[in-house]
Fold:
Amino acid sequence: MESEKKLSAVSDAGAWAMNVISSVGIIMANKQLMSAGGYAFGFATTLTGFHFAVTALVGLVSNAAGYSASKDVPLWELLWFSIVANMSITGMNFSLMLNSVGFYQISKLSMIPVVCVMEWILHNKHYSREVKWSVLVVVIGVGVCTVTDVKVNAKGFICACSAVLSTSLQQISIGSLQKKYSIGSFELLSKTAPIQALSLLFLGPFVDYFLNGKSIADYKMSYGALLFIVLSCALAVFCNMSQYLCIGRFSAVSFQVLGHMKTVCVLTLGWLLFDSQLTLKNIMGMAMAVIGMVMYGWAMEVEKQSSANPTVAPAQNSATEEETKLLKEAAEATNLAVKDIELGETKEG
Structure:
């Protein structure tokens, strides 16, 4: 039993490590690929289509080689999930385009309370006071180190709301679909990735043209850009796999809270690799966010132990004095009857 717990803990840590490393890596690769100082490949939605196309190909090869099994999930559920997931991607891109970076970061931070409310509405899930306080500390800490100017307009606000709602619903659906159909994280990803790839590769060029006014057909591909596209797609496979794996093992709220560790890592690596400015405000915010994540881990462990060992209230004696007296009299009468029978049997002998 103890060895199983240790193995499970190692698997959990491995899933988180894979998600953090691949997510931070893909952000760094995309920064070089898409920035004006890099290869200026400003087609984020189409690039996401490439990501899911490679993920779908990996899933197809895995199923053919027998490393994973394909389980039945209704097509309408896969289509519905893919629509929500694509709304999340396009909504985030539009939110980043129409809003300031500060408001974009605030909208991302709002996903934690939105996920909590959605899980409460959809799954009647409740959270302890310690979990709520730790989530608040994480939100404030990440907000301090990331939010700068906050400007918003009507279109940007609508896009941000749709992005937050669709992303939260997508992350909750990953866990619920895995439990509902007893399907593994990679198997579910293998089924949804082809649908997302086809839709994003078809719609992506139009969405990207609307976002930056450039057509992907006019982009001059270089060997360096191609190398970073391949690297981005490879990292995306691990990022998608680990996301499904983490949400399947934990919850959408845990994924959001601990996922902000990626924000801390990105800020630190940006300072180390890209000469980004790191102020005292950033450092204080990151420290607060890390403290909040530690608090969240402790709160979840306390919640898990309390649910595993529920305190049972001692049974109370509901009998009144009169009932107790009657029971005692009945017991005495029974004893007398037994004695009479014993005496009668003796006399007969």
Notes: Residues 311-321, 336-349 have pLDDT under 50 and may be disordered.
